[in-house]
Q: What sequence folds into this?
């Protein structure tokens, strides 16, 4: 059960889910959170599939069932298979190669505060500086979102 009472949401909000009901308890902070949530996707230079792999990696590392539930659908739309989702959940990354593996590994390093020169160089073989920035911001945002849903025990969506 969620640790914070859900907010009543105005009809004009584009998304009505349990996460928004929690963040909207403070509408001013919600607006910043929602804006960054949108921007790490809409302003990213990464392919959709790579973005979703990063989100799933960070959410899984943090045990954020809510974020995993929300993003597995989007990952499937971006071409991530059920087998690949299961591999990410189990931590078996051997199915991923090339730039996808680099994105997953780099996102994990960001989450674990382990980006050193070697991690940066490995990722830089596959991504431009702007794309690396995108991965850092995406992983950082989903680290925040995952910690938020975990700390507040946000209920999974039922539909």
A:
């Amino acid at each position: 059960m969620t640790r914070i009472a859900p907010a009543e949401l105005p009809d004009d909000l584009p998304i009505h889910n349990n996460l928004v009901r929690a963040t909207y308890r403070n509408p001013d902070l919600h607006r910043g959170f929602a804006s960054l949530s949108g921007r790490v996707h809409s302003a990213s230079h990464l392919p959709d599939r790579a973005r979703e792999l990063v989100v799933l990696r960070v959410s899984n590392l943090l045990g954020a069932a809510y974020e995993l539930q929300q993003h597995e659908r989007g990952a499937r739309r971006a071409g991530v298979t059920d087998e690949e989702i299961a591999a990410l959940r189990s931590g078996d990354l051997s199915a991923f190669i090339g730039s996808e593996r680099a994105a997953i590994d780099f996102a994990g390093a960001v989450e674990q505060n382990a980006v050193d020169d070697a991690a940066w160089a490995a990722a830089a073989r596959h991504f431009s500086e702007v794309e690396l920035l995108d991965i850092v911001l995406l992983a950082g945002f989903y680290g925040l979102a995952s910690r938020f849903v975990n700390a507040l025990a946000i209920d999974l969506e039922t539909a």
